[in-house]
Amino acid sequence: TMSKEEIEVRYYYIKKTKVIVEYIDKKTGNKLTEDVVINGHEGDNYMSENKNFEGYDFVEKTDNANGKMTREDIVVKYYYDKKTEDLVVKVPENPQPENTEKPSKPADNNNNNKPINTPSTGDMLPVIAVSIIGIIILANVVQIILNKKKNN
């Protein structure tokens, strides 16, 4: 309702900021992929994550991989070393039986000495990104509800 009384209104602003996550080859300094950017506001919590890169082993990360966002942008770095050589497992040839009986099924020697490929794991970044976005939206909704209750 409108009245003739003076009303004082105060606005409080929270600065937008971001966390930049870099994935780097430790020996060359080259980036292994595009930076991941986590947008938010000063005081928001953030979490970054290690990624898997084919042909590389994770070595270390900076101490600020998780924390609260500040006024200044934060840069998180994950370092990796290139693998020197991939492990190849060779299947030994089937030994010949000592007895003179004929085997019931001929041995398949066509696949001997071929490397065995192991399955690779999938990238969880899309799942984690959607989860983080959902948590941020949920936190904002709760904050709006609490502010409305406080004002009533």
Keywords, separated by commas or semicolons:
elongated; about 150 residues; 6 strands; two-stranded antiparallel sheet; 1 helix; alpha+beta; four-stranded mixed β-sheet
Can you summarize this structure?
By secondary structure, this protein is α+β, with helices and mostly antiparallel strands. Helix content is 18%, strand content 24%. It is elongated.
How many individual β-strands? 6
Query: What is the number of helical segments per DSSP (H or I, 4+ residues)?
Result: 1
List segments where confidence is low: pLDDT < 50 over at least 5 consecutive residues.
none
The topology string of helices and strands comes to: EEEEEEH
Principal-axes shape call: elongated
Distance between the termini: 15 Å
Amount of helix: 10-25%
Biggest beta-sheet profile:
4 strands, mixed
Q: Provide the residue-averaged pLDDT.
A: 82
Tell me the fraction of residues in β-strands, as a range.
15-25%
The side-by-side strand order for the widest beta sheet comes to 2-1-6-4
Explain what this protein looks like in three dimensions.
With 152 residues, the protein is of the alpha+beta class. Helices cover 18% and strands 24% of the residues. The protein has one helix and six strands, in the order E-E-E-E-E-E-H. It has a four-stranded mixed beta sheet, with no helix packed on it. It has a two-stranded antiparallel ribbon with strand order 3-5. The protein is elongated and about 95 Å long. The two termini are 15 Å apart.
